[in-house]
């Protein structure tokens, strides 16, 4: 019996050892795959660039000039043959008196038969840009929308303003489908808008054949692709069925297409253009800036920030509507319960709820019966409540695009509203393991983390860089925490700290031990099992400082992520990054800017003493570009008490 047990134990040890090896190999292979994919994409981009320049130089046609400022001015005018009708219907049907920026140009371009990509911040009125042309054109407009709930919201709204619109989706009854299909080829056009999901286009031959007939009868007026970024796997919300929408332009080349999105970088749009087979679309990009939104990041100083959120809601947003975004369905339920216990009318919302429960929460929130929806990202598209005064992120978003869109649910009525993120150390790694299989998931998350960790650049500037926009920080108008509390940071030399913490990871790795970021923190702070190891230099930094330094080192390549996969979960470990070896060099130094409120009193004192002695010359010498900037690092250091 004893022998049997020994044998089993020995075999278990050996299987575990082998499994560990396999996991290591898998993570190495995944790392290799990521590198190869990024190399492949670079090569593809080079090839594509070479091909298109060869094509344009070989073609006899002169290249078309891009859409100029004068062109835009032309399309902003109101003397087109349809202008009177458009203006009249804006007032009589939609009950609006004026266009918002770019709406008129988008409508005129679309009415002129041009293909168009419209990038406009969430809540600025993209829908009007295809709904109004639909009303002023013969036949009907085909609208592709990603979610049935989103279509239903639109249909409800259109019904309320007496615009005939229908949908064809998986839950349409046979009679409804029959009526809609017949209406598509009815010269009297019983409806002006037909909403379908991309799946319907991909799967329904009957629909395609009716579209074909309508096209030949001149009744297919326009195609609108809502949330067009879903076409591209580089976008933040890729839907495989969007990939098949290229068939529309191939089958109906003369029908103008308008693609609408709130968030798409130029690369994503290029990808969408290719996927949708649109030859030369005009892209109209409304300024990404929402001047009425105040952006703020707060550090989570312990795992749960619900108390702080409750306090904010009670004190700052009494009787005002808002959203609290959370990471998981479990968090949605837990945070909603916590808020309820603190007498806040909050309810959870997530993808796993019954559709009827979801729409009940939505309705109760819209009619102000509840104050707060505690939601996962499932609460997003189609949410059109005008007076949302706060969007609080209990956990950071997985990318800046996601954050921009989620926070953009605030202040649609142009009244001021707050967008606050609670930035927690452990959350980074929870999200990182969740996006591990996404194409550019880690990079996008790192950008979001950099947005949160940032203490010296206007938050809008960080977003502008992301969306390839030109941005002047003064335009922020102190509507972000960085611009408002400009001198709230200190520049700190962290070279020694970096060496100490890198040594901890290095030592662990030499003993074949993997450390999660939390274990690294504990070890460095002299806590946990590591406290018995005399070889570790325990830090005098506070926990928040320790976390900030580790994040900095991760963002700057001194550490990198080391994923380990089990059938049930993915673990995140820290390993040495490509720049870790630089720390062996005595001359290598690292400085980081840290929020003063994050720093412990001892550190502030230490930094300010040394700042007085030497730092201004050093920093000014290193950052000439900042020297005449009123927010320069040197000035910050000099202003210390
Ligand atoms: N010209 C206008 N003047 C005043 N309000 C307008 C105007 N155009 C649209 N709106 C209102 C109608 C809606 O309540 C709100 C948002 O419009 P909507 O078309 O749903 O935004 P959107 O499509 O850009 O947002 P999302 O990205 O969330 O889909 O703005």
From TrEMBL:
Transmembrane segments: none annotated. GO terms for cellular component: chromosome; cytoplasm; nucleus. Residues 606-631 have a biased composition (Basic and acidic residues). PROSITE patterns: HELICASE_ATP_BIND_1, HELICASE_CTER. Residues 632-641 have a biased composition (Basic residues). Residues 308-456 form the Helicase C-terminal domain. It is an enzyme of class 5 (isomerase). Its main location: nucleus. Signal peptide: none annotated. This is ATP-dependent DNA helicase. The gene is LOC107590167.
């Amino acid at each position: 019996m004893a022998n049997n047990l020994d044998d089993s134990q020995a075999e278990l040890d050996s299987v575990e050892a082998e499994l560990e090896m396999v996991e290591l190999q898998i993570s190495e292979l995944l790392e290799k795959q990521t590198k190869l994919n990024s190399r492949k994409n670079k090569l593809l981009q080079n090839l594509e660039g070479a091909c298109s320049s060869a094509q344009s130089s070989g073609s006899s046609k002169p290249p078309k000039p891009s859409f100029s400022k004068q062109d835009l001015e032309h399309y902003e005018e109101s003397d087109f043959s349809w202008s009177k009708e458009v203006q009249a219907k804006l007032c009589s049907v939609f009950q609006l008196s004026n266009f918002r920026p770019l709406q008129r140009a988008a409508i005129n371009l679309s009415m002129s038969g041009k293909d168009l990509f419209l990038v406009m911040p969430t809540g600025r009125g993209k829908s009007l840009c295809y709904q109004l042309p639909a009303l002023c054109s013969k036949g009907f407009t085909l609208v592709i929308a990603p979610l049935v709930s989103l279509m239903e919201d639109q249909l409800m709204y259109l019904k309320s303003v007496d615009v005939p619109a229908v949908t064809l989706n998986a839950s349409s009854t046979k009679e409804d489908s029959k009526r809609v299909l017949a209406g598509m080829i009815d010269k009297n056009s019983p409806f002006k808008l037909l909403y379908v999901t991309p799946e319907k286009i991909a799967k329904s031959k009957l629909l395609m054949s009716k579209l074909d007939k309508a096209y030949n009868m001149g009744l297919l007026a326009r195609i609108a692709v809502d949330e067009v970024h879903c076409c591209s796997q580089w976008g933040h919300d890729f839907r495989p069925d969007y990939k098949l929408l290229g068939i529309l332009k191939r089958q109906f080349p003369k029908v103008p297409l308008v693609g609408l999105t709130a968030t798409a970088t130029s690369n994503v749009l290029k990808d969408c253009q290719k996927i949708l087979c649109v030859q030369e679309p005009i892209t109209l990009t409304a300024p990404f800036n929402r001047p009425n939104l105040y952006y703020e990041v707060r550090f989570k100083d312990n795992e749960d920030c619900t108390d702080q959120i409750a306090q904010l809601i009670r004190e700052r947003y009494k009787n005002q509507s808002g959203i609290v975004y959370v990471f998981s369905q479990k968090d949605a339920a837990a945070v909603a319960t916590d808020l309820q216990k603190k007498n806040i009318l909050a309810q959870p919302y997530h993808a796993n709820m019954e559709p009827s429960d979801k729409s009940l929460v939505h309705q109760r929130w819209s009619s102000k019966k509840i104050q707060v929806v505690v939601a996962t990202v499932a609460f997003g598209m189609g949410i059109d409540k005008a007076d949302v005064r706060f969007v609080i992120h209990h956990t950071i978003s997985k990318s800046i695009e996601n954050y921009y869109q989620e926070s953009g649910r605030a202040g649609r009525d142009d009244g001021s509203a707050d967008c606050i993120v609670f930035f927690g150390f452990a959350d980074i790694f929870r999200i990182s393991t969740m996006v591990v299989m996404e194409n550019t998931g880690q990079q996008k998350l790192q950008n979001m983390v950099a947005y949160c960790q940032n203490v010296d650049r206007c938050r809008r500037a960080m977003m502008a860089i992301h969306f390839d926009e030109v941005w002047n920080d003064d335009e922020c108008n102190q509507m972000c925490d960085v611009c408002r509390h400009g001198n709230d940071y200190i520049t700190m030399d962290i070279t020694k700290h970096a060496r100490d913490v890198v040594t901890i990871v290095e030592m662990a790795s030499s003993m074949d031990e993997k450390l999660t970021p939390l274990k690294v923190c504990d070890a460095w702070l002299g806590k946990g099992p590591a406290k018995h190891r005399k070889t570790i230099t325990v830090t005098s930094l506070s926990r928040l400082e320790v976390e900030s330094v580790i994040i900095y080192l991760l963002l700057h390549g001194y550490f990198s992520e080391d994923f380990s996969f089990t059938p049930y979960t993915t673990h995140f470990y820290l390993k040495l990054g490509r720049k870790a070896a630089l720390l062996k060099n005595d001359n290598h130094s690292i400085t980081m800017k840290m929020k003063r409120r994050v720093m412990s009193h001892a550190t502030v004192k230490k930094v300010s003493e040394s700042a007085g002695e030497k730092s201004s010359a050093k920093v000014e010498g290193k950052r000439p570009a900042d020297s005449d900037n009123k927010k320069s690092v040197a000035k910050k250091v000099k202003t210390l008490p």
